[in-house]
Design brief:
Elements (H helix, E strand, L loop, with lengths): L3 E2 L4 E2 L6 E2 L5 E2 L25 H7 L4 H9 L7 H26 L3 H26 L8 H9 L2
Antiparallel strand pairs: 1-2, 3-4
């Protein structure tokens, strides 16, 4: 038995057709009328890559992701990611410079190295967590240079 589709309705023909007093076709079996699918809300487009917060935090992991984010699109077009990348680079340079200076100072410098290293570690964790939360946390001197480089 063929199924017919007629302008948004499906029908199965009755094998024994009947007609009413006016000659119109009448069916005993109820006809199935499907509900047309409702248009769903537009799906958000799939985002490729990292979120801004994740990329900003990842820039602090080492200097390598920070440099990559400054080179690779679409990350290099985002001022938030550029800011954290530049601040990470400047922070790394400052940490290395301070360590070099302290190791060149006999005895007192050698005693201060572990405490300064612990301080840099605490600042690094704070920067990473602030970037992960979406905050643009600026260090006193380094943050100004990073904001200038990022164009923020």
């Amino acid at each position: 038995m063929p199924i017919r589709y007629n302008h948004d309705t499906w029908s199965i023909p009755n094998p024994s057709p009947r007609f009413n007093s006016k000659g119109a076709y009448v069916s005993d079996s109820p006809q199935y009328t499907p509900v047309p699918p409702q248009p769903s809300a537009p799906q958000p487009t799939a985002q490729s890559g990292l979120s801004d917060n994740a990329a900003g935090a990842l820039a602090y992991v080492t200097i390598i992701p920070a440099i990559i984010f400054l080179i690779v699109e679409p990350y290099n077009r985002n001022s938030y990611i550029r800011f954290h990348s530049w601040q990470s680079i400047f922070f790394g340079i400052a940490a290395v410079a301070v360590h070099i200076v302290l190791t060149l100072i006999p005895v007192i410098g050698w005693i201060l190295v572990p405490f300064v290293s612990l301080g840099f570690l605490v600042i690094w964790v704070i920067l990473l967590l602030k970037a992960l939360k979406g905050e643009r946390f600026q260090l006193p001197i380094i943050g100004k240079f990073a904001a200038q480089q990022a164009g923020a």
